[in-house]
Write a structure and sequence with these properties.
Elements (H helix, E strand, L loop, with lengths): L9 E5 L9 H18 L3 E7 L18 H12 L3 E5 L10 H6 L2 E3 L3 E5 L2 E5 L10 H11 L1 H8 L3 H13 L17 H10 L6 E4 L6 E6 L2 E5 L8 E5 L4 E5 L8 E4 L1
Parallel strand pairs: 1-2, 2-3, 3-4, 6-7, 7-9, 8-12
Antiparallel strand pairs: 1-10, 5-6, 8-9, 10-11
Length: about 260
């Protein structure tokens, strides 16, 4: 049996697992690795934040959800049942999440960034796609994906058809072709956005995914931005024990994690 909820004192954050991404055989290997990691946190996790693009494509019909991911979803059910509070943020690949996770797993669902106060520390948490100024073509596409009328129309398709469209789209992503994220620069849009936010309001931590580049950078005195990397190449996650937040790598030596000032 897991620890009593009062004994749980750690908060974990991951993003961009892209489960189901082509080729499926590699996705299954990564799913098993993700389940192994979830096993390591189940005894001390108070909350788990799944910060977007956990699935490479997800669309719920009223009575149908995508097949697969049994090991991962089963492990989430186990964590939820022993008292771990789980939060799911839709990303740009798994936007079409509706009520299934809440109804079956008691997972809270968010479609935009949220603010959390954890042990006196102020967090801004979100997938990180489309934040800040610019990138208007992507923002228009995102609006279409989140438009209620267009979602209703897409849901009228037979599940076989909608899943075929989604998986075909997924196969054309750069990550399914083995292309890693482009190089990091001080013009990262998430960093620019966070610095603009800090001009109006203080946050101790900005937690984002989306970019697939694991970094932990100081923005200002007592303010940091963390990108969670991914579970395709880096296998990184953030851990907060109420006092310190660390960006770690599972079954690795932490190489490739960028730290410093922004």
């Amino acid at each position: 049996m897991g620890k009593n909820i009062s004994q749980r004192n750690k908060f974990y954050f991951i993003s961009d697992a892209h489960l189901g991404m082509h080729p499926v055989e590699e996705s299954r290997k990564r799913e098993k690795k993700l389940v192994r990691w979830l096993d390591t946190i189940k005894d001390d996790a108070a909350e788990l934040f799944l910060v977007g693009d956990i699935f490479d494509f997800w669309h719920e019909h009223k009575h149908v959800v995508p097949k697969g991911f049994v090991r991962f979803l089963g492990k989430l059910a186990e964590l939820s049942d022993i008292g771990v509070k789980i939060h799911f943020f839709s990303g740009n690949h798994d936007i079409w999440v509706y009520g299934y996770f809440k109804e079956e797993l008691n997972i809270d669902i968010y479609h935009k960034p949220i603010v959390r106060i954890i042990n006196g520390n102020k967090f801004l948490i979100g997938h990180g796609d489309g934040v800040g100024k610019g990138d208007y073509a992507y923002k228009l596409l995102k609006w279409c994906f989140r438009n209620k009328t267009l979602q209703w129309l897409f849901s009228r398709l037979h599940p076989n058809c909608s899943m075929w469209i989604g998986k075909t789209w997924s196969k054309h992503s750069r990550y399914s072709k083995g292309i890693v994220a482009e190089g990091f620069s001080d013009r990262e849009f998430q960093i620019i956005y966070a610095k603009d936010v800090l001009k109006e309001e203080h946050y101790d931590y900005f937690i984002f995914g989306h970019r697939h580049i694991p970094y932990d950078l100081k923005l200002a005195e007592n303010s940091r931005i963390i990108n969670l990397g991914d579970w395709i190449y880096s296998y990184t996650y953030a851990e907060f024990d109420g006092l310190q937040l660390k960006l770690e790598q599972f079954e690795g030596n932490g190489s490739g994690i960028m730290k410093g000032g922004a």
